């Protein structure tokens, strides 16, 4: 039941001295997590991460990371060696047109980072993003999504604790909650479950925006209500009628919209969840297991 303190960036290891001070202050009273590109790792930093049981999340998009992030630490033998020394290691990709084959992505990670827990998130199209990142072959993307979840459900049915199943389970859980109408619209963890605090004590509505809602010295209800009002103002009416709103909860309010107010990322979300649901139910309906526990 401990709170989790996550170090985010930019690149959080640029502020390693401050991270050390924070960890020395809180010690083991909280859990720690860090999202990093891995470029500043040293033996000393890896020892610090392990000694303080920090969950280290490497941002990496697979074999084309040099294109999507301009730097791929997995191509550096020294940094790759250090990464594999980290005891609580995860790797996280943003799925774009350069890495939309989920199974190939997991296979690559399994070779270079065999102990890492795999994760991925769908691309959020922002106003300054190069268009080649979201220039998807949508027919191929649909097939890749279906194949990925078909493999995950096969492993679930046969109780095979695979990397594929591990990467798919957060989305399977989301789909089960959505089918049970447990998710609300709009829904964003940044406004109702997380606090985004900079090193000066300012609180922002999200780590991806500069909209300030208060400071750590302010009354809790004041900054929470300000954040809630900001998020409610970003609601898009069309989302309420969408076929996948019970799963994506309207997506991110920071996603840019076209002239009709529709999110550019909506097509990606709809393809993802529609094919995921189809693959999940195809797999379950052709098995002889009792899958009702998934929806409890």
Oligomer: single chain
Q: From the helix content, strand content and strand pairing, which structural class follows?
A: alpha/beta
Q: Span between N and C termini? A: 22 Å
Shape verdict: globular
Query: What is the strand content?
Result: 5-15%
Q: Can you count the beta strands? A: 8
Q: So how many helices?
A: 11
Structure report:
With 296 residues, the chain is of the alpha/beta class. It is 41% helix and 13% strand. The chain has helices spanning 16-26, 43-51, 65-68, 77-83, 102-112, 138-157, 163-179, 189-192, 220-232, 245-248, 266-285, and strands spanning 4-7, 31-36, 54-59, 89-95, 117-122, 196-197, 202-204, 212-215.
Which short descriptors sum up this protein?
41% helix, 5-stranded parallel sheet, alpha/beta, 13% strand, 296 residues
List the helices and strands and how they pair.
Layout: E1 4-7, H1 16-26, E2 31-36, H2 43-51, E3 54-59, H3 65-68, H4 77-83, E4 89-95, H5 102-112, E5 117-122, H6 138-157, H7 163-179, H8 189-192, E6 196-197, E7 202-204, E8 212-215, H9 220-232, H10 245-248, H11 266-285
Parallel strand pairs: 1-2, 2-3, 3-4, 4-5
Antiparallel strand pairs: 6-7, 7-8
Helix pairs in contact: 6-7, 6-11
């Amino acid at each position: 039941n401990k709170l989790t303190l996550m170090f985010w960036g930019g690149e959080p290891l640029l502020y390693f001295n401050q991270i050390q001070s924070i960890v020395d202050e809180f010690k083991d009273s909280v859990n720690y997590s860090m999202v990093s590109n891995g470029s500043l790792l040293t033996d000393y930093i890896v020892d610090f991460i392990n000694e303080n049981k920090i969950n280290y999340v490497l941002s990496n998009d697979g074999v084309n990371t040099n294109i999507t992030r301009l730097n791929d630490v997995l191509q550096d033998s020294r940094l790759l060696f250090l990464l594999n020394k980290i005891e609580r290691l995860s790797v996280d990709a943003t799925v774009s047109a350069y890495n939309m084959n989920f199974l190939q992505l997991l296979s690559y990670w399994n070779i270079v980072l065999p102990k890492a827990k795999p994760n991925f998130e769908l691309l959020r199209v922002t106003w300054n993003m190069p268009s080649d990142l979201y220039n998807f072959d949508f027919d191929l993307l649909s097939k890749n999504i279906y194949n990925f979840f078909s493999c995950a459900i096969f492993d679930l049915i046969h109780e095979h604790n695979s990397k594929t199943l591990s990467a798919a389970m957060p989305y399977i859980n989301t789909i089960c909650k959505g089918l049970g109408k447990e998710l609300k619209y709009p829904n964003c963890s940044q406004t109702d479950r997380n606090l985004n605090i900079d090193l000066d004590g300012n609180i922002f509505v999200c780590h991806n925006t500069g909209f300030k809602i208060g400071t750590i010295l302010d009354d809790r209800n004041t900054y929470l209500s300000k954040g809630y009002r900001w998020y409610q103002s970003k609601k898009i009416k069309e989302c309420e009628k969408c076929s996948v709103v019970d799963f994506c909860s309207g997506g991110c309010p920071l996603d840019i919209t076209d002239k009709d107010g529709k999110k550019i990322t909506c097509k990606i979300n709809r393809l993802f969840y529609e094919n995921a649901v189809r693959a999940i139910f195809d797999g379950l309906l052709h098995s002889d297991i009792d899958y009702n526990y998934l929806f409890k």
